[in-house]
Amino acid sequence: METVKLYSTSSEREVYDNMAALYAIIMSLECLERAFARDSVSAHDYTTECNKLLLQYKTVSQMISQEELADFPQKYRLNCPAASRRLEVGIPSTIEHSSTSSGSISNAKHIAEAVQGFITINDALGLNMRSVDKLHPLLTDLLQSINATALIPADFKWKATFRDWLIKLNQMKASDELDDDQVRQLMFEVEQAFHEFKTTLGTTE
How far apart are CA 46 and CA 97, in angstroms? Predict the structure, then answer.
């Protein structure tokens, strides 16, 4: 039987290698999401592995055309709804959803981290830092701190707002920048969220 070669040049081989890596990352993420849903992996291990896979996906996706990337799951008939959702959001489920600690010392720590997060994002935007690779980690840290603060209710509306921003940033390239209107809107929402965060803490103390 004659061997069928998928490529004839080194550049063509690189394309197939990137596709193979992408497939492995997506399916690994799908398995990880399902395992976490079944409580088969700890929150700490899940978060570590999920962050690693998301970073790997970001790296590999930069080597593949956007058209090929968008059609990849359907083209290769991948059944990966959990992985698709995680890639869309761009952060682990443990950060996306609330995970609070009731201890007073731990809660004070998360409140302090959230306050620092609000201030840091406002300062960054004020200094004209608007690229995705600068803002995404700041928003991720802020959302994680808000979620971890036990005194903040699960339905605190600004959690969804920041998740939406993370999804938007995750769909952009690392070097892309927010335009003036987006920066103004984000600054406004961060300021409003900070005000309501402090108000909520004041009413629950």
Answer: 14
pTM across the whole model: 0.70
Dihedral angle computed from the Cα positions of residues 139, 123, 183 and 83, in that order, rounded to the nearest 10 degrees: -10
Per-residue pLDDT tens digits for 171-181 = 888 889 999 99
What distance in Å separates the CA atoms of residue 33 and residue 92, rounded to the nearest whole number?
9
Tokens describing residue 96: 């996306």
**Residue 22 exposed, middle or buried by CB count within 10 Å (0-12, 13-18, 19+):** buried
Residue corresponding to tokens 């990337």: 69
Q: Is 202 helix (H, G, I), strand (E, B) or coil?
A: helix
166 within 8 A of 90, measured Cβ to Cβ: yes
Phi then psi dihedrals of residue 149, to 5 deg: -85, 110
Specify the length of the chain in residues: 205
Going by C-alpha positions, the residue among 135, 109, 132, 98 that lies closest to residue 120 is 135
Distance between CA 68 and CA 104 in Å, rounded?
49
Token pair in block for residue 64: 């593949």
Per residue in 181-190, pLDDT (tens digit) is: 999 999 999 9
Nearest to 32 by CA among 23, 22, 42: 42
